[in-house]
Amino acid sequence: MFARPGLPSFDYVRAATPDEAIDLLEKHGEAARLLMGGTDLFVRMREGDIRPHIVVDVKHLPGMRTVTYNEREGLTVGAAVTMNQVASHPDVQARYPLLAQAAASVASYQLRNRATVGGNLCNASPCANTAPAALVLSGRMVLYAADGEREVPASEFFLGPGETKMRAIEMMTAIRFPVPPPGAVGRYLQLGRNKSGDLSIVGVAILGFPDGRASSSRPATDSGYGFRIGLASVAPVPLEALEAEDVLAHNPPGEETFALAAAKAMEAATPIDDVRGSSAYRKAMVRNLTLRGLRHVWKQLRNT
Amino acid sequence: MATHSITVTVNGSQEHLNVPSNMTLLQMLREKLALTGTKNGCEAGECGACTVLVDGDPVNSCMMLAVEADGCEVTTVEGLAHYHEGEVRLSPLQQAFVEHNAVQCGFCTPGMLISAHALLQRNAHPTEEEIREALVGNLCRCTGYLRIVRAVQEAAADT
Amino acid sequence: MTEELHTTDPVGKSVPRMDAIEKVSGAAIFADDMQFGPGLYHGRLVRSPHAHALVKSVDPGPALEMPGVRAVVTGRDICARIGLYLIDRPIFASDRVRYVGDPVAGVIATSEETAAEAAQLVHIEYEELPAVFDPVEAARQDAPLLHPDLAEYQVANFIFPEPGTNVSEHFKLRKGDIETAWPQCAAIVEGTFRLPQIQHVTIEPHVAVALWEQSGEVTLWTSSQSPFAQRDLIAQSLSISHGNLRVVSPYVGGGFGGKAGVSMEVYAVAMARAVKGHAIKLRMTREEEFVGTTVRQSLVAHTKIGCDAEGNLLAMETEYYFGGGAYNDYGVNIARAAGYSCTGPYDIPNVKGDSYCVYTNQPIGSAMRGFGMPEIHWGIEQIMDQLADKIAMDPTEFRRRNCVRTGDTILTGMNMPAIDLVACIDKVTQAIHWDERRGQARPRPSAPHKKRGQGIAIMWKAPAMPPNPGSSAVVRFNEDATVNVEIGAQELGQGAFTVAAQVAAQALGVPYEWVRVSAPVDTRYSPYEWQTVASRITWSMGNAVKAAAEDARGQILGIVAAHWGEDPDELDIKDGRVISYQSEREQPLKNMVVYGLPNEDFEGWKGGPIVGRGKFMPTYVTNLDPKTGQGTRAVVHYTVGAQAVDLEVDTETGEVEILKIASAYDVGKAINPDLIMTQIEGGAVHGMSSAFEALRFDDKGRPINANLVDYRIATSVDVPQEIHGDFVETPLEDGPWGARGVGEHVMVQTAPAIANAIHDALGIRFNDLPLSAEKIFMALE
Fold first, then answer.
1. What is the pLDDT of residues C346-362, one digit of tens each?
2. Structure pTM?
3. Do residues C333 and C278 share a domain?
4. Residue where a domain terminates, one of B79, B95, B111
5. Beta bridge partners of B74
6. Is C744 labeled as catalytic in the residue annotation?
């Protein structure tokens, strides 16, 4: 009933290769867990939620801790890259400031030295700080299993609270982000019970960019600007407020359009009452934070 | 349960230890090395009383396994002062804490010092806001934080 | 340290804390840091998952079979109860559990991990009973009864439980004639105010190590505010002679009342008896801290007040229902103290007050910083604002008009000792520029979607103690004339050791830096101290140390006077030397304080080792009439103070940003002015945080947020930009140099000050705690 002191017993294994990690998952099934930052795993082990016999450390495997960027392929963030590493990386700050903001908003500086982006996404908490950014930046989860590598776009990755499209015997090795639209700016807003450091009651990620031209994935917007809005803590999964984005694509940017879009974002949210906030409050906060975020992003767009 | 033979440099001294898989770095420091300056306040990565430096980065030692620290350099509060010819020289930060009365019960103090020390290493002249942000993971119930912020400001000004 | 400090006459000076260097270097030892070697056993408590249930059977068998388990202790092994003013708590519940978390058994093993595993194997069968969580409901005749044997419990003679009910204390206050007063009122307001349980959240969790020797000697090492009180309670309940029970406590990593009585310590001692000869450590996890140690009581307060057309208060009627939790530690005395303080710091001629402590199936409600005062001031300071508003009077003016003054006959019939609350009000109103608020000069919010407001609240508190709480002290010298002060008071961070050293140094005539405080406090060696609670230590321990130092000083002067053939009245001690005003001779203290002084030509000696002793115990507190609460002297003294808050509310989110808190307290004499400031700052933040905190339970009484993720306390980014502290010095008649305490007072009225400021900003009043951004936002919508 109460969390135990210390961790229950288990065997720690450092996987020498990704295949060894997969083999261990295969061999031990539910009794094995992958270890990256441990900030979620250890807490749940103390609480008795999970009781692995084997904990497989994969942080050190090739690419897991690296961040690379190039102008063609975009950004690749190793699954075990820490929040602080992401937030302070010069290429992330320059090209994906929204991701840097989201990573920097997690808990405390100490926890950000252990908590990983991959872990945040794999755990798929509805309030995961980096999930809305992953959605609006069109992130793709790179997964590795016995049959090799595959990619799952963020928009398809989250299935429910704590549930993802990952198979039982699979690991995340990286998250890839395409080059953002030219001139893109972003803002991540989070409301917690403390001014910072808390889990989110509501999290809103807004990306804005000039968009006079069509791309392979979407038609050109009437308004000349494109916006993407990602929401956390207001549904079973992190979600993208598509109708709100539509409003912004087809209406001239300004207070009236933003208010309409914010209302649509609010409609998209289906929060529950929990210890952090009520459903009614969360819905209202989606509206108010989206509005704030849009104003902020719009200001940046006009200045550049 | 498996045990592991690890080598960790703690406050400049190399230690060879055998640790069980489930021992946290916090437990290793307190129980294997009797370095009790680092405190257990929650074992959940929330209070910051267990903060130490691992390869220069502040981490909650309750959220890290001892075996994960193999090959690392760890600094605890006991490693902040300099001992020189029988004399203890507190670091400028520790000195500032003393002078500003930034210490009351003292239980959060080791973690605060480590977090603040790490801040000044990466940002020699932080703003007040940056100091507060850097310390958000170190809870204090006694001081109200203001003296702590001022002590960090003073230590920053001295360097 | 680069310079050698040398501070003579330290009282009134902000000398550096004597424990600061130890604490910043990580050398300071707390209870969990003490080393006991490889033979140390570890304990874990098995706790009830039900809020209220009969215990049908306890089977430790499966746990005992686990390798490494040394013993399992249950209620049947102990058959004893413990309590402070009302002995109601079985040491390990045996026939009935009364809250989720109530300990039913204790497992002892060779490692904490083994004990934790084995604790899950103890098989207990329960039969659930209906539970009650609201104190008003619990006070009703038809409520589920938690303590059917209430009539059999031993109880202190100033506490009045009502057997056959859940009421463990009922304090009655009747002054004047309330019925004739109401018709005389030009304005009356009435309100109900509620607050939930909250927790101390000391950064150091509770920990106890106990060793029961085969010889019968028992030692308890623990983080404790009250080693002597813990010894007393545990000795009595476990039938150990006081002389055979030793309690040792090093630095306390935060107390706030949570380590003042007996919460988990008795279990460690009871468990130690099952493994004689082995020390056993019992450590609370943070989750257990929230509900398994003690909490601040919940309260439902109904209050009605009235004033005349000029704004003079005429009448107050009030009813308090404290949610005392499953057992009483300090709970009954909190209800009593609330009862005899129910007017707040106001002069009200007609008062009817009823204060109830009620058993509820919740964690043990007990002492937390303020001891009932924060709980009652939440409603008092808001309803005063409401009444002022009703007669269109400025709230600060209303308070100046009605606040208690020196010599007033207060609600218990006692004369108010000398204080200056008006000066405190003046200081805080000045600090937030209150008088400039009128008309155009009202402070503006920093953005169009924000609203700004200011609020004020005043407070009073007396130490809530039995009539005879004693302090004692010993002052001894080392050969080099450095001094050892022995006290039973505890250093919780408030600076008790520093103050003890300042007092001793001042009274002796030696530099502050020559004085050491003997620590840890150890009942085998330390002189008796009732408890480190009630903001009483500077006053009471201070008096005892002063007396001991003066005793030592008298001995020294007597010896040197005889040695010189002079009159001791012409001698003094200054800067560690005896000096004569008559002959201007000097005698350093060094060596003579141990070896004495030789006669001429070494024909004999005078003196010897100097040991000064002193004590202090108030002797003037009287009983209160159980029907009226009237008595000559209810309490020793009061500390009063005022706080003002300037804040902004973000109307788009409901978030509150505190811009400034201004505090002023009448401390009598600031022995160490900067330490008082640190109490004011810490208290303001603690008070602010407490307004937003709440322990939450589901409908079966199970805790929902018993962890730091979901029980949020103020962090470094939540702190106001500015905390302005000030103090007034109206000497306390029997305080050392006039000093009285302030450690609790600094957070008593912060929550209602914030509520008053929010009302000023938004026109919305919040009668129930906790405040939250959500609550404020939803009220605005």
1. 999 999 999 999 999 99
2. 0.97
3. no
4. B79
5. B10, B54
6. yes
